[in-house]
Write a structure and sequence with these properties.
Shape: rod-shaped
Order of helices and strands: HHH
Strand content: under 5%
Radius of gyration: 35 Å
Structural class: mainly alpha
Number of strands: 0
Distance between the termini: 82 Å
Length: 168
């Protein structure tokens, strides 16, 4: 068969051009394109790591702010209880009418402080939720390249917060 005998004559030339072509492709892709792609991937990994570190720092700051608020809340409650106890002790020494009047005043003050505490708790919760929504929006943008509106991020944080509260 003449085709088989021609194969032996052109075999070496075909192998030479095959090796030359693959060598050229290796140099172009392996030495030129792969390092650029790897550099891009490494840069992206660095940005993601930085974003995650920033998000963790924001979460830690929010946790610290919450803990400070709780301590302040407890101190305010203790002060309110101390004021109430002192007023009751003084009122016990006074007449029965003055006792009733002082008790009513202290009760109103305590209710106002508790209302202030509830308002402060709501403000702190809203601030924490806003920080979490902003961090979630930034992470979604940087990590996944998804543009998320503030409202969507806030809804997601509220939904997550509600789910955590329901499970906790």
């Amino acid at each position: 068969m003449p085709q088989i005998s021609q194969l032996a004559a052109t075999y070496q030339g075909q192998i030479f051009w095959l090796l030359l072509t693959f060598g050229f492709v290796f140099l172009v892709v392996g030495r030129g394109m792969v390092p650029r792609v790897q550099k891009t991937i490494d840069g992206r990994d660095g940005r993601i790591s930085g974003d995650l570190t920033a998000a963790k720092a924001a979460r830690d700051a929010a946790d610290a702010a919450e803990e400070n608020w709780r301590q302040g809340d407890q101190a305010a409650r203790e002060r309110a209880q101390a004021v109430l106890a002192d007023a009751r002790a003084r009122a016990a020494k006074a007449t029965e009418v003055r006792l009733a009047q002082a008790g009513a005043e202290q009760h109103d003050r305590l209710a106002a402080r508790e209302a202030d505490i509830r308002a402060a708790a709501q403000r702190a919760g809203a601030e924490i939720e806003a920080v979490a929504a902003e961090a979630a929006r930034d992470i979604a943008q940087r990590v996944a390249g998804i543009s998320v509106s503030n409202e969507e991020a806030q809804v997601a944080v509220r939904r997550l917060n509600t789910g955590v509260a329901a499970h906790g």
